[in-house]
Amino acid sequence: MVKLQAAIDYTNIEEAFALMEKIEPYIDIIEIGTMLGLCEGFSALGKMKQKYPHKKVLCDAKLVDGGYDIASYAYDAGADIVTTIGMTNNETCSGVVRAAHERGKEAMVDMIGVANLAERVQELDAMGFDYILVHTAHDMLNCISAPLEALKVIKANVKNAKAGISGGITVDQMPDIVAGKPDWVVVGSALYTAKDPLLVAKSMKEYMK
Ligand SMILES: O=C(CO)[C@H](O)[C@H](O)COP(=O)(O)O
Fold this sequence. Notes:
The chain is of the alpha/beta class.
């Protein structure tokens, strides 16, 4: 089954807990979003992991430098997965992979803004990333749609990593998204702006069976 990652981009952990209480049965990966991490710090990772020890907790740090050192700190604070970006240098990317695998944890690379997709996917896959994510940037959501073509490029070029998709994904888009056969789907605002987040999470998961 395709996995569902809830991207929680609130500014405080209490709201994140309140959302998770509603949607928990349908969520596989709990993302401490970039906004939440910046507002609450890495202690949010440990707090979330303590509440949901059976779920994967992801730190969406989108690391651009300090890969090994910062990722190590995030893993030790409670993260199961830490993100970096494919646009940055190989030392940073491989540092995140090393920090993850030294601890028996996992590393994710976000392809936000990467131009030479096929070539870069091959490099990052060979580096040992567990997850490679195509992502329409939050600031570009009104300009471009879900990057299904990019997902195809990732799937055609990975040997080991799982391929995922993110960026303004809604329930209405799910038939097209699952047709692209991602390993996992990241959903943020469609969950946390919904009147009934449980219904949204449940409906999404239905498509993922
Ligand atoms: O990483 C992010 C923005 O950079 C978001 O967490 C990600 O895009 C998912 O949120 P949404 O579904 O609202 O786009």
